[in-house]
Structure formats: structure tokens, C-alpha cells
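Input.
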Amino acid sequence: MSAVDKAFHGLRLMISSGRLGPGERFPPEGDLCEELGVSRSSLREAVRMLAALGAAEARHGSGTFVSQLRPEDLIGRLSLTVALLPLDGLLELYEIRRVLEAHVMAQAAARITPESLETLYGYIETIEATEDPATFSEFDHLFHAEIARLGGNPALESLLAVFRARSRSYQVFTMPEGPAFKRASDEDHRAIVTALANRDPAAAANAAAAHVARTERWLHTYRPPISEDAVHHER
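Output.
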């Protein structure tokens, strides 16, 4: 194990064990180096690694602190690794995504409000009216994000956002088959909102699973090129 790894695992243990709690300041650098048996440079690199994971934050003039360790924030940092996956790796995640989207959709069906339904119908109208892939991508994201919010679990909401952001890198609607794909996607969105409006968890879950499975099938069959613009805007 390298000195940086030693420092990283030592700090991680301090946090996971509760010795250093959310919002607490790290002990003085010299004390940590002595306890962990590493140099200052190794310790600083380990702290940078924790910061990249969202577990630590440096405050100018105040020192380094443990973050608030909110699950949704830490899970959101998975975008750093999920963004590295090639298409075949992304497709392996789709089985997970189908299950989670179906669960969230069922939860949303039980919690839907007239205000949220109005918002979702507004997104659908924009999606159906546009032929611009960027506009479609933006409002499709807003549509699914609103439903995930209704699911009531911020950590799950964050995880699904990571999956969706990576999927948006592949723009199937710019392909020659794009118009047919979009019509099918529009129909899926209508089926989802109808199930939500009817407060039918089973129908909502089935509609969500079918929608995700359709996208998975398109990606697997047609293997569209990755969009550099979409990658740039990933979380």
C-alpha cells in the first residue's frame, strides 16, 4: 500500500467510524501525519482524494472540514466514475436503472399532486412540440427529475440523475431513425403520466420499466456515437 493510500484509508476510517463527524474540522496536519505515519504531501493528496469524493472540503483560512456527508451529495459524485464507462458498461447498469425507475414511479403515483401533474404535462407538451435534440434532452431530464423528486428519497433521486446524465451522452434522436424513436418516447411519457394521474402504482412502474427497456434496446441495437456536448454537461 502506498503512503497516499495509507493516508486515504486512515482518514476514511476516521470518518466512517464517526471519529470525525459531518462538519467537523480535521485535526492539525502534523498530528495526522504522526498518527498515520505519512508525510505531509501524502496526507494532502489523500485529502484531495476525499474532496473529489465529496467527503471533505477546504475552507480558505479555516482548514479542512468533513462535509455534511449527505448521501445524495456523495452518490452524485459517482458521475465522476460512471462518466468513464463505455457504452457496454453503461448498458450493464440499465438493469439496475429499470428496477429503480419502476420503484420511484410507483412511489410517485402514490404521492402525485395536481401541481406536479400540471408541471409534468407542461414538460410533455414542450417535448412533443420540439424537434431540437438539445431541447428534448433538457426537458426529458426535467420530466424524469420531477418524478424522482416525488419519489421522496434524495439519495435515490441523485443516483438516477447520475444514470440519466450518462445516458444523455448518446443522442439516439439525431440518428436517421430518430423521428420514429421520438414518437415512441413521446408515447411512453404519456403512458407514464396517465398512470400517475390515475394514482396507479403498478401501471406507473410498468410504464417506467418499459420506457427504460426501450432506450436500452435502442442503445444496444444502434450503438449511437457519443455526444461531446452532452459529455461536457454531465454532472
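Residues 39 and 101 are 46 Å apart (CA to CA).
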